Amino acid sequence: QLQLVESGGGRVQAGGSLRLSCAASGFTLDSHDIGWFRQVPGKEREGVSCIDGSTGRTKYADSVKGRFTVSRDNAKNTVYLQMSSLRPDDTAVYYCAATDVVDSCTGFSDFAPNIYGSWGQGTQVTVSA
Length: 129
What we know:
- By secondary structure, the chain is mostly beta strands.
- The chain is built from no helices and eleven strands.
- The chain has strands spanning about 5, 10-15, 20-25, 35-40, 45-50, 60, 70-75, 80-85, 90-100, 120, 125-129.
């Protein structure tokens, strides 16, 4: 059974950094694309970043490009989202998700959340001004 568990969220001041972790079980990272999404109450889920399972290629939303970095440790079966220069508008619940649909991460112009079949429980990130 595929399972994803996020951790690393918290409260930080603007300009600070956090590193989110997404621990995967029931599959290996080289077989699935992993996406990071975030959601604010009353708004649609927004794609933030993703990493291709087979190639390791990455994609970022324009709003986080240059500030966030997605990476993975295959030995730990964990994907990370390093977030720097955080801003109050980064405040959201952050989710990681997995899909075995080939090229889900880099094959579409958007992040296509409907393609991702397995989701973690989310972790809250709060950035204060």
